[in-house]
Amino acid sequence: MKVLNRHSRTYQQPKTVVAQLLKTLATKDDRIWPQENWPAMRFENGLQVGSHGGHGIIRYSVAAHTEGEFITFNFTQPRGFIGYHKFQVNEISYDLKEVVHEIRMETKGLDTLKWIFVIRWLHDALAENALDRIANHFSEKNKRTPWSLWVKFWRLIFKLKSKA
């Protein structure tokens, strides 16, 4: 199954300010990834091309990286995920930037069902939470996109499974 999954948000900030946040991804001072609620993104050698890592059961390697502009990751696990995901900063105007998280992949076999019924829902919540974290750097409001009942259900299942 072909998958295009895109999440984006605009921020009224100069590119240098948004780029500084992107530079922190997968570091000890990560200001994007919502690791307070999701497995942390980690890499064996940081965000260098060829470095392997991921988050939770999702594994990938850094395929391309231009600091502060974009990072592309090629999936390595699950095996039925063939493609990539990326973070990218797009300049709309001097004071308006768009941050995009996008998955482009093809799923195979049972991993198609995992995507449809479980991973897609969790991914969508995680991606929105990451975009919320960026927004919260520029606002006194604490933006938090609510999770659907389906996301809450799967998080509970995984929590119970990890305790067993």
Query: What CATH architecture label applies?
Result: 2-Layer Sandwich
**What top-tier CATH class fits best?**
Alpha Beta
Q: Using the CA coordinates, give the radius of gyration.
A: 16 Å
The overall number of domains is: 1
How many helices does DSSP assign? 3
Q: Order of strands across the widest beta sheet? A: 1-7-6-5-4-3-2
Percentage of β-strand residues: 35-45%
Low-confidence stretches: none
How confident overall, as mean pLDDT?
95
CATH superfamily heading: START domain
SS content category = alpha+beta
Can you tell me the CATH topology?
Answer: Alpha-D-Glucose-1,6-Bisphosphate, Chain A, domain 4
Shape estimate: globular
Number of DSSP strands? 7
* Biggest β-sheet strands, sense, barrel: 7 strands, antiparallel
Span of the ends, CA to CA: 33 Å
Give the helices and strands as they follow along the chain: EHEEEEEEHH
Instruction: Determine the fraction of residues in helical runs and give it as a percent range.
Output: 25-40%
Helix and strand topology:
Elements lengths: L1 E10 L3 H9 L18 E2 L8 E4 L2 E9 L3 E8 L3 E13 L2 E12 L2 H28 L11 H15 L1
Helix pairs in contact: 2-3
Describe this protein's structure.
- The protein is an alpha+beta fold and 164 residues long.
- It has a single domain, classed as Alpha-D-Glucose-1,6-Bisphosphate, Chain A, domain 4.
- It contains 3 helices and 7 strands.
- It has a 7-stranded antiparallel β-sheet.
- Helix 2 (110-137) crosses helix 3.
- The longest helix has 28 residues, at 110-137.
In short:
This protein has 164 residues and is α+β, with helices and mostly antiparallel strands.
